[in-house]
Every structure is written in structure tokens, then in C-alpha cells.
Design goal:
With 210 residues, the protein is of the alpha+beta class. It has one domain: Glutaredoxin (3-Layer(aba) Sandwich), CATH 3.40.30.10. Helix content is 48%, strand content 16%. It contains nine helices and six strands; from the N terminus they run βααββαβαααααββα. The chain has a four-stranded mixed β-sheet with strand order 2-1-5-6. The protein has a two-stranded antiparallel ribbon with strand order 3-4. Helix 2 runs parallel beside helix 9, helix 4 packs antiparallel against helix 5 and helix 4 packs across helix 7. The longest helix is centred in the first third of the chain and has 18 residues. 35% of the residues are buried.
Length: 210
């Protein structure tokens, strides 16, 4: 049973390509250290709301370059037909809010739902800025559409999502993925950016004196 005083805090965004690349690393971290520490997810807010980017040709070229680098580094698959979309608004807030909604309804499946959204966006070219795109995944976790929708549209969820963005800033996080280790009141930055498990695993063992 994990001690409540120890946490592995992952700060990421469902529409961050390096976060998608980081999924296998996070899964290994959970498998290796889940019995020693609570695993917690914070949505950091990559390009939320007013910071959303319209995907012009230059923005699309930049994003494609990132995807190629992530694929090469991590081996994670990508569906490049995404770049056939015209005038796509890269707004990461709806998907972040969906993750927070699931956290409130069924916290034990939050990270699995987070990964479902990533997989849908990066490997199936599903537009996860549209709330309707989340519905097929709700049945998987026995979450009713009506419960999800009423929470998703609520002021409380909007505030909770903003609180996640603010918490990431208070931690000093400026990029994703980031992982912070907490033991009692002591915080330590494990990584700010993608790294392999081979590099992170020993650092976590050292932190928790395993």
C-alpha cells in the first residue's frame, strides 16, 4: 500500500506530443513504484483557451517536426493525416477539462482516460477539442454520458481545471512532460521534459531510498 506522504506527480497535457511519447515511461514508473508512492496527474495547460493556436502552415510544420522527433525518440506511433486538417484550432483546454471531469467522477481511471485521449488524437486523428469525442470512452469506465456532461459543463470543473494550470505554474513547471517527486513536504524535480526510463528509474529509487 502506498504511503500517503509520498507522491509521484506527473504534469502533462493530452495534446502535448512529448507527453504521448512519455506514456511508456510513465507506465513503467507506475509498475515499478506504484506500491511505494501515490501517482498523481495534473493537467498543465499547453495552449488553453486564449492561448490556443490556429494551425497555419508554419505552425503545422513546427508541430509535425515535434511529432517526428517524438516518434524517433520514443517509438510511439502517430497519424500524420492530422496535418490534412485546415484551420484547426489547437486549443488544449477542452481535453484537459475532460480529464479533470473524469478525475472527479472516477479518480482511479483518470490516467487511463488521459491516455485514451492521447491515443485517439495522435494515432486515430480524432479531434479531442470536441466534447463529443470523449463519449465513446465513458462506457469503458462505466461513466454515464449525462453525469459526464453535467460535470464537464459546470463552473466547479472549470475552476478545478484552472487550479491545475495554476498548480503547475506554482511548481515552476514551464514545459511538459514534467515529473515531481514529493516526500512529506519536500519536493524534487525528477524531469522537465522527455527522458527514458533508464535514466529516470535509478533517480526515483535513489529519491525513495529503495
Amino acid at each position: 500500500m502506498a504511503e500517503a506522504s509520498r507522491s509521484i506527480i506527473y504534469i502533462g497535457d493530452p495534446m502535448c506530443s512529448w507527453c504521448w511519447g512519455f506514456v511508456p515511461v510513465l507506465e513503467k514508473i507506475q509498475a515499478e513504484f506504484g506500491e511505494y508512492a501515490e501517482f498523481k496527474t495534473i493537467v498543465g495547460g499547453l495552449r488553453p483557451g486564449i492561448h490556443a493556436q490556429r494551425m497555419t502552415t508554419s505552425v503545422g510544420d513546427m508541430i509535425r517536426s515535434h511529432w517526428e522527433h517524438v516518434e524517433e525518440a520514443s517509438g510511439q506511433p502517430f497519424d500524420y493525416s492530422f496535418f490534412d486538417r485546415k484551420d484547426f484550432l489547437y486549443d488544449t483546454e477542452p481535453a484537459a477539462k475532460a480529464v479533470v471531469t473524469v478525475r472527479h467522477l472516477k479518480p482511479e481511471v483518470e490516467f487511463d482516460f488521459f491516455k485514451d485521449l492521447q491515443r485517439a488524437f495522435y494515432t486515430k486523428n480524432i479531434d479531442i477539442t470536441l466534447p463529443g469525442s470523449y463519449l465513446p470512452y465513458l462506457a469503458k469506465y462505466d461513466i454515464s454520458e449525462s453525469d459526464f456532461q453535467s460535470h464537464y459543463d459546470s463552473i466547479d470543473i472549470r475552476k478545478a481545471t484552472t487550479a491545475d494550470f495554476q498548480q503547475a505554474k506554482e511548481y515552476g513547471v514551464r514545459g511538459f512532460p514534467s515529473v515531481i517527486l514529493r516526500s512529506d513536504a519536500k519536493l524534487g524535480l525528477l524531469t522537465a521534459g522527455y527522458q527514458s526510463y533508464d535514466r529516470l528509474g535509478p533517480a526515483i529509487k535513489n529519491w525513495f531510498s529503495l
